[in-house]
Amino acid sequence: MTDEAWSRLRAVCPRCRTALTADDSGVMCGPCGARYPLEGGILRLALGREGAPGYDPHFFRTLERVEGRHFWFVARREVVLDALRRAVPDLDRRALVDIGCGSGGLLQYLRDRGVTVAGACDAYLESLEIVRRRVAVPLALVDEGRLPPLGPGHDLLALFDVLEHLDDDRGMLRFLHSVLAPGGVVVLTVPAHPFLFDDRDELAHHRRRYRRGELREKLEEAGFSVRVLSHFMAPLVPLLLAMRAVSRFLPRSRRHRRDRQQLEFRVVPVINGLGRALLAAERQVLRLGSLPFGSSIIAVATRPGDGPAAPEGLGSGRGGGR
Ligand SMILES: [Zn+2]
After folding, report:
1. How do residues 193-248 score in pLDDT, each as one tens digit?
2. Is residue 9 part of a domain?
3. DSSP per-residue string spanning 86-105
4. How far does the centroid of ligand 1 lie from the alpha carbon of residue 32, in Å?
């Protein structure tokens, strides 16, 4: 990969947050003298996790196997692409950085449909090694519990089912706002409805599920102007409620819970076909407007354009965000 490709990731030193300079074996920070190796196409910018784990790397291999077919992943990637195309008219002039890219299925899907990808980062080497086999983009290993080492000037940042894994989601949103250029866009998906929170969320290291109004408030508090804010996966709400009722009668050990989680990732033909049909119908509804319930929420928000790139009134949505 060329230096120019790496420069689009806009990685900074995780210690002092100044821009890095590249040489043959990796990158170096001038001010603090730190060196960060580039091994197997993955830039190692991790210093060590802060706080409790945010993810269980156990699931990456399963994800890689099923995410191209499983109705949940298929619906999510379609909803994301539709929302981006609807809310970001100059999508083809932007380059996306995927923060917390997991096994990279969504990234690969967007890239295959014409979205330029500037790079991705994740806190797990297991995930980045899978992504590297699927998409040739700059990849950085970063820390959980710390803000990602990205510098300013981005025009499209994505966090697909990441925010709910963070203790300080408000801090992350303020950070995203600070590293986006004026007119820059963030696209997010999160699990919805706090009343659905159960031991599956705990097992997935979710800190919370979101109300739609709460996500809007947090985005606006960080300075964003909200363009798209909708629930999706409405057909899953009754299903999740039923599963929660049944799960009271099932064994509660960690191993049993993990087995059940694995079961949810299985692609069972009849159920998967039904799920895909229901969610394909929902996609048509979403193209016309937004949904008031559904087990996930999608948001597309912009940093209001106050720089030369975006004159007043253009691309700033509702201005100050109120
Ligand atoms: Zn430094």
Report:
1. 999 898 888 888 899 999 999 999 999 999 999 999 999 999 888 888 887 777 77
2. no
3. HH-TTGGG-EEEEET-TTSH
4. 4
* 15, two tokens: 């210690």
CA of 303 to the centre of ligand 1 (A): 27
Distances (CA, A) of 292 to 110, 189, 298: 26, 15, 12
**Residues by chain with Cβ below 5 Å of ion ligand 1:** 13, 15-16, 29, 32, 34
Q: Which domain holds residue 142?
A: 46-302
Domain membership of residue 94 (yes or no) is yes
Q: Provide the token pair at 30.
A: 């001038």
Distance 287 CA to ligand 1 centre (A): 45
> 205 C-alpha vs ligand 1 centroid, how far in Å?
31
Q: How far apart are CA 287 and CA 260, in angstroms?
A: 33
Tell me if residue 205 falls in helix, strand or coil.
coil
Residue 146 domain-assigned (yes or no): yes
Helix or strand or coil: residue 252?
coil
Phi/psi at 81 (nearest 5 deg)? -65, -45
**Ligand 1 mean position to 150 CA, how many Å?**
13
Q: What residues have CB less than 8 Å from 202, skipping those under 6 apart?
A: none
Domain count, the chain: 1
* Ligand 1 centroid to residue 15 C-alpha, Å: 5
Q: Give me ligand 1 centre to Cα 30, in Å.
A: 7
Q: Where are the beta strands (DSSP E) in the chain?
A: 21-23, 26-28, 35-39, 42-44, 95-99, 116-122, 139-141, 154-160, 180-191, 225-232, 296-302
26-80: per-residue pLDDT in tens? Answer: 889 989 999 999 998 899 999 877 777 777 777 777 888 888 889 999 999 999 9
Q: Taking Cα atoms as reference points, which of 151, 152, 172 lies closest to residue 162?
A: 172
CA of 89 to the centre of ligand 1 (A): 37
